[in-house]
Task: structure prediction
Amino acid sequence: MSTSTAYAAHTGLAAARATGLNKVYGEGDTRVVALDNVSVSFGQGEFTAIMGPSGSGKSTLMHCMAGLDTVSSGSATIGETELVGLKDKQLTKLRRDKIGFVFQAFNLLPTLTALENITLPMDIAGRKVDKAWLDRVVETVGLSGRLSHRPAQLSGGQQQRVACARALASKPEIIFADEPTGNLDSRSGAEILSFLRNSVRELGQTVVMVTHDPVAASYADRVVFLADGRIVDELTNPTADSVLDRMRRFDAKGRTS
Amino acid sequence: MYRTALRNVLAHKGRLLMTALAVMLGTAFVAGTLVFSDTMGQAVRNSYSKSYSDVSVLVSDKWSRSAENGPKAAGEKKREALTDATVKDFAALPGVERARGVVTGFTAVADKKGNLIGEAWSAQGSNFAPDASGQDSRYPMVQGRGPKAAGEIALNKQAADKAGYQVGDKVRVAGNGAAEDTTLTGVFTSDDPQVTSGGTLVLMDTATAQQRLLEAGHYSSIALTAKSGVAESALLDAAKAKLPADVFDLETGQQLKDEQSEMVTRSVTGMKSMLLVFAGISLFVGIFIIVNTFTMLIAQRLKELALLRAVGASRRQVTNSVLVEALMIGVIASVSGLLLGIGIGAGMQSLLAGVNEGMPTGSLVIAPATVIGTLVTGIVVTVLSALIPAIRASRIPPVAAMSSGDLPSTQRGLVVRNSIGTLLAGGGIALILLGAFSKGSGGRTYLELGAPVTLIGVFVLLPLLSRPVVALVGPLLGKVFGTPGKLARRNAVRNPRRTASTAAALTIGLTLVTAVTVIGNSVTSTVTRLVAGSMKADYTVSMANHDEVARELAPVIAKANGVTAASPVGNVMWTMAGDRKAVQGFDAAAFDQLVKVDMTSGSTGALKQGQILVNDEFAGKHQLHQGSTLKLEVDGGKTVDLTVGGVFERNDALSPVIASNTLIDQYDSDSFVTEILVKGKDGATPALKQAVKEATGSNPVIQVLTEKDKVDEFSRIITTMLNIMYGLLGMAVLVAVLGVINTLAMSVFERKREIGMLRAIGLDRRGIKRMVRIESVVISLFGALIGVGLGCFLAWAAIRVLAADLNGLTTAVPYGSVALFLLLAALVGIIAALWPARRASRMDILSSIKTD
Ligand SMILES: Nc1ncnc2c1ncn2[C@@H]1O[C@H](COP(=O)(O)OP(=O)(O)OP(=O)(O)O)[C@@H](O)[C@H]1O
Ligand SMILES: [Mg+2]
Result:
């Protein structure tokens, strides 16, 4: 049904695109089709949320599109680069240069200070830090006073903001965030979300975020719904209510079918 | 609880592998030592009892025994001797089957180049005493026949093979007199232990042996064989009645065997204790690894243990569950250690037998004490080492099960630890300094007390030291190795306790290795310096068996081609002004050409006037100066006045008082000539050496050596000793390497998510590998640096203490070796990191991130 729309939405200016993506785990009895012919594209400067029931393949989709996991068939691109068939070395370089990550938990190295954590991807790449940009990112994240702290000295929300700043600091083409607010209370969660949205609005960043929370999804420009490894629906300019409404419909469908 | 423990052991078998290996190596060392020394002892004892199998009573001449072992004890007049008549007397005794007169004494054999075969201390000569059939049952001939006349000899097979002699060859032999060319008539085998362990044995006909080794017609001992059914003790009593007891020793065969057996036991026990010390060091190193492993396992299982507590397990139960795990490891590791050790013991045995074919062999001896001792040691060490982590585990509060996130590195408790460490290290160092600066022999006690205290103190302080020491190299790491270097450095200090106990294992090994190396090097370089600084002579002529050199050789040598001066060095102990000191005598005319002295007053020419030279120290003590007189006590309680002709600067190669040989002989007939100094017209040349050798009758006992030869010989001995030490300490270092591998592997496992995250944000596999490798090198170098520093310090203190006995000994740090040790430590770090780094780099990004 709306698979084609999801794919067509931003054909011209896609930061990342999946075409006919399949991902199968296991063999025989334990065979699980985690992604079933998924085609989707994420436009530049767009904030997309991926939603769906647990086990629907959200994380798998994200990992495949971010070059963290291999695909069974189909194609995935970041910008102009095709990921399928790349060697580990090239994938590593691609992640380092073009992709930012925010995970649900454990985003930071405990031995480094907040600032060192933020500049880590650039240190690894041996790239010079763009000082003005860094200042702007740090300011947006609101961590100016805490840069020399170690992660253990920061709250969960602050740690997550450091993780966001790290993802932004290297100006990647796209940021993937897997349940970035999953471990946070609603206030800290809201801070992170507005921050991500601001980075899209003000800094022109592309963000793809997996979430279970309709409120979180409402911060996005677009919501893509996954079920059983397939894209089943999408929603633009969502509100918490409209997202919730859509989810109820799937639930009902799931129960009746 | 036991089932939980068993399941834990099985679940963590990979992680416990290194611990088990460490315990296994330590216990294998213990078991190997015990098995090897028991087997050796047994074999040697057997070979001794075999060689005494036909001796029921041995009558030996005390006087001739002392003659065998050293210079003739002068003045002692011989009253009775063992002669052919005595042998006949004994043979006529009722219970005697056979009486055999034996002559033994020092006899050297030259190889085809004229050099001594084997070592002088094991070069023996004896008489060939054939029975009616013309054979001597003790020496079965494998080639040719026994010697029958003067100028004929037989040689043991090993010696003949070594030199490549065949029956019929000319062989040059020498006893305490001149060398002589003889004809080899036979080659024989012998189970005489001295021969089987590599000595040489020359057989001569009895008359020649008596003449060469003793005195015509005399025997050094008589071996009586009892008729069957006659008790050895009865024979002993019968023999005793025939001889005055104070001149001869009479012993039964059993007594001899017992004596030998005891001697063997003593020497084997000595070797065993030394090896056990090193095995102990390996086990001690293992303790650090065990503690580390269990501490890490408990940290990883924090939540699990807290949950146990939360659902009602008592502290004791938690402690016990850890201890039971340790017990299982201990049992498994000790049993495999025992088996491995038995294998090592057997391997050593056959290795030695392979290298030295005459080596006595026997079946492997596995004493019950070996089995019990090894198992108990291994198990007790493992369980005791796990005790502290186990107690810590029991202190985990139940609430820890609920808390989320990662453990903060435990900095608590380090305050107490640091205070104790500072106290211990400070006290220990103070004791050592006290020892190093105290005069006399008291220093030794301080050092012996201070050294272990300091070591323990430093080990306790290692966590504190880790940060500043690593910080020293930190900036460099970041610059050279980029982000992986920076991360590695942070990782190395993130858990100081873990880093410290990993490094400590290496510290122990390197402290010992460095200390023995520095001491060995200092001794060698001191000797080199002394020798080089005191002599002008090109060659010294001395006896390989440390016997006196015939002084008559000096004028003969002086006439040899190319020799410009030669002088015997006579040694006496004289009491002068109530002070008993060594006095060296030289030929006055040759003195200036042979000896280097710095005169502060007077001149060496005074020796020619029958005056003496004294060193400044002696002069100061007795207020002597040129022209003063010194009272010498001579025989009969009288004194004579000696005139001081000059004062020279103290020189450790020379005695405090120097005189001319003429002067010494005037008052003392016992001057002992240790060597003859020779100066050549063109320095030390092969031609000169050959000329001197020929002048002295090409005697294999006479050595013609340069000072450098002597130093080389000496440093060879030191080097051999060091190599043995290195070999033995190698095991401890090996265990330490296991420790580094262990820590790294466990750290990598613990930091799985971190590594996954680093991979996700773009650190490649090489970067991850490099990070682990550098951490490993940093930890290894940290341990090595402390060890090298400590080793140098201890060696310095020990040398200062030793210098009280060994004049002129000063510390000389072999910087090359020290640098090499550090380099090797870095290499150890790289090797230890191979497997963990590979594992880390191969980790699956996604599963690492997902790990809870
Ligand atoms: N490594 C794996 N091996 C086998 N099956 C897997 C593996 N990883 C994921 N799966 C399966 O693939 C499907 C999709 O998993 P995925 O983690 O993408 O779901 P998700 O939508 O992210 O769920 P959640 O909201 O719970 O995080 C699930 O059925 C899961 O069981
Ligand atoms: Mg998921």
